[in-house]
Design a protein that fits this description.
This protein is α+β, with helices and mostly antiparallel strands. The protein has one domain (15-270). 31% of the residues lie in helices and 29% in strands. α3 (81-98) crosses α4. The protein binds zinc ion. Zinc ion binds at residues 7, 9-10, 12, 73-74, 76-77.
Length: 275
Amino acid sequence: MQQPGKCIFCGGTGLTKQHIWPNWLRKVIPRDANFHNQLNRHNVAFNPGKTSSMSVNEFQKQGHLGTRQVRNVCKKCNEGWMSEMEQKAQSMISEMIAGNSVTLAFDDCHTLANWVTMTMIMAEYIDTFTQAIPVIHRHFLYEFQMPPTGWKIWIGNFSGKDWKFRYRHATNVVTTVHEAMLHSNGKRKLSPNVQFSTMVIGKFIFHCASGPELLIEKCQWNDEWGLTKIWPIAKKKCFVFENKIIWPSKIIINDMMALAISEHLSKQMTGKTSK
Ligand SMILES: [Zn+2]
């Protein structure tokens, strides 16, 4: 997708090693494991909701998930706008991880949505085979400091046992039968074009979907899932309480619900029940 040695956001050179999840998180949420499991799931749907195929592979990696690093951004981005984006969100995220109530106005939703987008773009580099976020989306975040069109982000209130610091990523290739045939004949490469990421950090859970706008537009959650959309939102409408979002919401998302959330939209899009 990207030439080796070039910054994934600005295209500049001089790459530095960057933590996917900020290092200050270790002070807020203990890194109490010395290994983590990585599961890569890859779905292919020929015409949304029709025929599909799927591949899954799982393996164990050393160290806590929070220590994962990638060398894909330049020093200027890393120490510049990325660091600013992170600092802006830090206190809000810290409160949410601890389960302390926060009130989110439009600007807070924007700050949080930016951080989620940046972090989920970085996290996709854990497995480049299932990478689905296109270069144009990375450039958009860099250029405009807001999530690109075709992104939706939800937050929720989590309490569980298994999910303490967990990231799940499902990608789909949504294409036509014709394209798929060209692919099986070796004439066309099929790259994932839709991704669903779910992340739990302490009491804070977020979920995001990105891909072609028309497909993402259909991604919705009913109230009983306990997720509140923070992006996209209109500046003065769509807030649930006096133009603001109060977090945590009353619905508590547990381990089973988190797992279901991480797979639901992806399954819906491929029309297939997966592992
Ligand atoms: Zn850069």
